[in-house]
Design the sequence.
């Protein structure tokens, strides 16, 4: 695919950059990024579209390393959070409730337990997989974003709504793993934000009946998987 020079860079990441071009966003991956992972990301987006979790549609291009996407107006919630506006945490809490409230019937998305062990040592798998199996036996699985943080929540200027982006990590799992994943991200980047997260977001999880013991187990699973990701 050839751009005419009018594209505008609007985002960068470890494996891709995003440009705005003729009213659409284009995600341009590095040539070294596996095309099968890009195809998987497209299927993930189709699944969340079907579940009513995201209005953003993906479109094929003539380059298998470029995805055309509907452009989301607004800004990342990070822009609001860094001002100290605690509304950002209320929006995150609403986002968790929104995602976990959707039916998983007919959703083509892998269960967390199927992919959680990828890249882990045998020792790590021996801990992670039984914990997931145990928590799945206690709680119904829902769609979990599993990368819920302020950069993946888009909001308009008036903060009247939100749109979740980047569903690559999404899996069918007990919601406790979604809350745990975000906890670990805050744990890494901001102790202050973590304390606010505990006060304003985690009550929604506790209200669902999750025990402290089960949450601690989910946290340890999330830490192990996060460490694997950072070492890739």
Sequence:
């Amino acid at each position: 695919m050839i751009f005419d020079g009018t594209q505008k860079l609007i985002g960068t990441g470890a494996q891709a950059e995003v440009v705005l071009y003729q009213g659409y966003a284009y995600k341009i991956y590095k040539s070294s990024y596996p095309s099968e992972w890009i195809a998987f990301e497209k299927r993930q987006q189709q699944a969340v579209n079907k579940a009513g979790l995201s209005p953003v549609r993906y479109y094929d291009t003539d380059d298998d390393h470029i995805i055309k996407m509907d452009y989301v107006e607004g800004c990342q919630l990070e822009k609001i959070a860094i001002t100290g506006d605690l509304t950002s945490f209320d929006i995150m809490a609403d986002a968790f409730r929104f995602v976990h409230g959707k039916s998983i019937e007919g959703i083509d998305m892998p269960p967390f337990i199927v992919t959680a062990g990828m890249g882990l040592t045998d020792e790590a798998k021996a801990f992670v997989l039984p914990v997931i199996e145990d928590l799945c036996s206690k709680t119904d699985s829902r769609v979990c974003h599993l990368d819920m943080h302020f950069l993946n929540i888009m909001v308009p200027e008036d903060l009247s709504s939100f749109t979740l982006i980047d569903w690559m990590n999404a899996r069918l799992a007990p919601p406790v793993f979604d809350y745990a994943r975000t906890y670990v991200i805050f744990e890494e980047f901001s102790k202050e934000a973590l304390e606010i997260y505990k006060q304003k977001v985690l009550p929604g999880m506790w209200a669902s009946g999750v025990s402290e013991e089960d949450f601690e187990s989910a946290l340890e699973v999330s830490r192990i998987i996060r460490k694997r990701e950072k070492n890739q």
Remarks:
- Residues 26 and 68 are 5 Å apart (CA to CA).
- Residues 212-230 form the longest helix (19 residues).
- The radius of gyration is 18 Å.
- The chain has a mean pLDDT of 95.
